[in-house]
Amino acid sequence: MNTIDTFWSAVGVELCIGSPQHFGLNDVKSADDFMLKFRKEPWNDKQVVLFIDEYDELFGANDDVKSSFLGTIRSIKNAKRFYALWSSVVIGPLSILFPKTDKRNVSPFNVLDSLRNPNFTLAQVESLYKAYENDAKLTIAPEVIKDIYERTNGHAGLVCLCGKAISYSLEKKLDEGRSLDFKLWSKFLVSPLVLNSMIMYLPFKKMVDDLLRPDAKEALDFLRSVFVGFFDFIQIHSTDKRRLADFLTAEGVLIRESSTEFSYRMSSIFVDGLVRREVIPLLYKSCPTVPVPKIDGGLKVLDALIESIRCFDKTIICNAFNRSFKTALVKVDGCQNRMVPRESVYDTELNRILLNWIVNECFEVTGQWHLIDHADNDEKDKHYYSNITIMTPRKTVVLELLASANKKELNEHFERVLNYAEMLSADDKWIVNFTCEDDATKNPHWPPNDRKFESVNVVHFFHDRKFENVRMSARYISNSGTFSYITDQVIQLQ
Question: Are residues 68 and 182 in the same domain?
């Protein structure tokens, strides 16, 4: 659609294909042809409604093409008594309500409203996959279907995309019983296949392209500092910030709680992962300049973590105390219940740096969010924790990230990382606790002296509110196979 002539010829072809009884192949090659074809007389007083799907494709055209189309429809609307075209309905994502053009506003639409397709409920996703199971003669574990629902938030396209992924990539890996269990599903999720499928899906490719535009940078700064990696609704009070949130909602990145509430959240875990892999690393490129620390073809994890932290965006960390926070269950600055950065802040920064740094050395980095559901169907009793998986053909590393965790939380995750690592057949298991807790690195909490935990490495990174004083304590398996300890070591920042 580079020229007006090309555009109208393409419209003519589509009209001929869709309604050959009314349109010949060469009937419409210009705006004038289009208007002549919709004159009232040839239609015998019939009223025509024109439905235009994938209307957002028009936004990729230049302003001359957009103005020609919109101006033609408006001309017909302004003289509608002479035309059979009674109404025009366009279909596309929410962003079609906000056309962008440097030309004067010639939008022909006097009703700008959205009829949104509701996301599937869990019951609908279960019903859909039950039908798929029957057709494909296989069994999908209920926890897999629930995980699909949680990761897609019921988005119809993503729900179907997961079904296609199972059909194309996982069916051939099923055993004789043709049963897809959660272990096989989890292994699949740490591969890049799902996000690769998303980026090939036109709406998500367009989303990524739009977010990478220079004029979207302010919105991306806002997204990165407030929403990424967090899946609860956040109330936005500033009018300027609401404008940015509405833009991100129109792009499909955020969803709004209701039309009367200015509360927003990431639209799904999968969209969050797509933004963190395909957008944020490209726009925020800082990473270590030293060589990637390696040993025997694998990653020297502790050294890589230290170098990564030196490149953390200090502004993001400092602002998180007010923008992306949680209530600490540990003592901070001598007080209880202080606001501290939540897990998503550290996860997004570490994921960004690793993607910009070690991926260039043939390491594969995948971020994952996991739901912990302590009470069935009680949204208030759910929370998420994050893993970063680093893979080479020879070795798999699991980093389980926490933020200002107390001893109870740490003990739970000492257990959980073992279970997750077993599902992935991971060689290297790490608990990484970013914390603002007083004396966290002077009196670090380690796993029990039990053979069960002898493969679990733990590192605590303490930092102050200004991210100027960063200290580390670590318990890790050395090359000799025994534990080495580092206590309260200062990390020199850039």
Answer: no
| Tens-binned pLDDT, residue by residue, of the chain (494 aa) | 679 999 999 999 999 998 999 999 999 999 999 999 999 988 988 899 999 887 777 777 788 888 888 889 888 888 888 999 988 888 876 666 655 555 544 455 554 455 567 899 999 999 999 999 999 999 999 999 999 999 999 999 999 999 999 999 999 999 889 999 999 998 899 888 888 989 888 889 989 999 999 999 999 999 999 999 999 999 999 999 999 999 999 899 999 988 788 999 999 999 999 999 999 999 999 999 999 999 887 899 999 999 999 999 999 999 999 988 999 999 999 999 999 999 999 999 999 999 999 998 989 999 887 655 544 444 444 555 678 999 988 889 999 999 999 999 999 999 999 988 888 888 899 999 999 999 999 999 999 988 899 999 999 999 999 999 999 999 999 877 789 999 999 999 87
> Is the pTM for the entire model greater than 0.85?
no
Same domain, yes or no, for 324 and 469? yes
Sign of CA pseudo-dihedral 232, 436, 337, 402: positive
Q: List residues bridging with 434 in a β-sheet.
A: 403, 461
Cα Rg of the chain (Å, integer): 27
Are 350 and 434 contained in the same domain?
yes
184 & 316 share domain: no
Closest listed residue to residue 189, CA positions, set 171, 172, 173, 166: 166
Within 10 A of 89 (CB to CB), how many other CB atoms are there? Answer: 13
**75 and 129, same domain (yes or no):** no
Number of independent structural domains in the chain: 3
> Which of 162, 190, 218 is a domain's end point?
190
H or E segment to which residue 493 belongs: none
